[in-house]
Design a protein that fits this description.
The protein has 260 residues and is mainly α. The protein has helices at 2-85, 91-113, 118-153, 166-179, 186-202, 208-218, 224-228, 235-259. The protein is 83% helix and 0% strand.
Length: 260
């Protein structure tokens, strides 16, 4: 009986050890599986965060591009509006208003340059160059277009071509002479300069200072058609509009590509 009890005890010990071993292995495997699952979840979370971060950066970049392009167009359009309005503005405020608008265009152009969009940047440079051309001609242009407007207001209210009133007649002749001034030969302009001065004064449309300004501008006919503008076409502003449209098209294409 004692032998049987001892034998039972000897057999029970290994069984207990084996059970403990397998229990421990099961726990280790469960821990390993949990660790693997946790690692997978962690990597997925990191990847999701990276994707979310990249999407956020792309959205921010697209927003920056949109804002920069919009601000550049707005600055250029405000410059053109100022150029259009200069003839009706007092002479003493024209240069300050023009300088302020041109500075805004230059600053907005700098915002385009950092976007890393070659085609958009190239088109923006074309717009800037045209804006700078507007700046160079705007003040002289304002003198002429202001004078043209004043002369037109002093025409005969009926038929300026046959009017006998000396002031109305002088206003019409001065207007017609300025319109063709750029097409005259140098010698002819010199011969007509005194006559131009006389009809400008005789029109009573301009002050003595305004007459002097017109004569100063008339001393050089470089870019005359652009200075005068036109009743049907305005070459200077047409060129601006062409390069502006090209920039707008390039900017829209870039934004659509980025969004896609």
């Amino acid at each position: 009986m004692a032998v049987t009890s001892a034998l039972t005890t000897l057999v029970a010990v290994p069984v207990t050890l084996v059970a403990a071993h397998w229990t421990r292995r099961s726990m280790d495997r469960a821990a390993d599986a949990a660790g693997v699952a946790g690692l997978g979840q962690s990597e997925a979370a990191v990847q999701a965060a990276r994707l979310q971060g990249r999407a956020g950066r792309e959205h921010a970049l697209e927003s920056d591009r949109r804002v920069a392009c919009t601000e550049f167009l707005r600055a250029a359009d405000l410059l053109v509006r100022t150029v259009r309005e200069l003839p009706a503005s007092p002479r003493e405020v024209r240069k300050e208003a023009l300088d302020r608008r041109v500075t805004a265009v230059i600053e907005a152009r700098a915002g385009i340059a950092v976007l890393g969009l070659a085609d958009v940047s190239s088109r923006a440079q074309d717009v800037l160059e045209q804006c700078l051309r507007l700046e160079r001609l705007a003040l002289r242009r304002a003198v002429l277009r202001s004078a043209i407007g004043a002369l037109e207001r002093h025409w005969c209210p009926r038929n300026p071509e046959v009017c006998e009133d000396p002031h109305h007649r002088a206003a019409f002749v001065a207007w017609d002479l300025l319109g063709g001034w750029g097409r005259l030969e140098d010698e002819d302009r010199w011969e007509e300069l005194d006559f131009l001065e006389w009809v400008l004064k005789e029109s009573h449309a301009l002050t003595a200072d305004e007459v002097a300004q017109v004569l100063e501008v008339a001393d050089s006919v470089v870019h005359w058609d652009e200075l005068m503008g036109g009743w049907i076409r305005d070459p200077l502003l047409e060129r601006f509009q062409a390069v502006r449209d090209e920039f707008a098209t390039a900017a829209r294409g870039s934004l659509m590509t980025a969004a896609g």
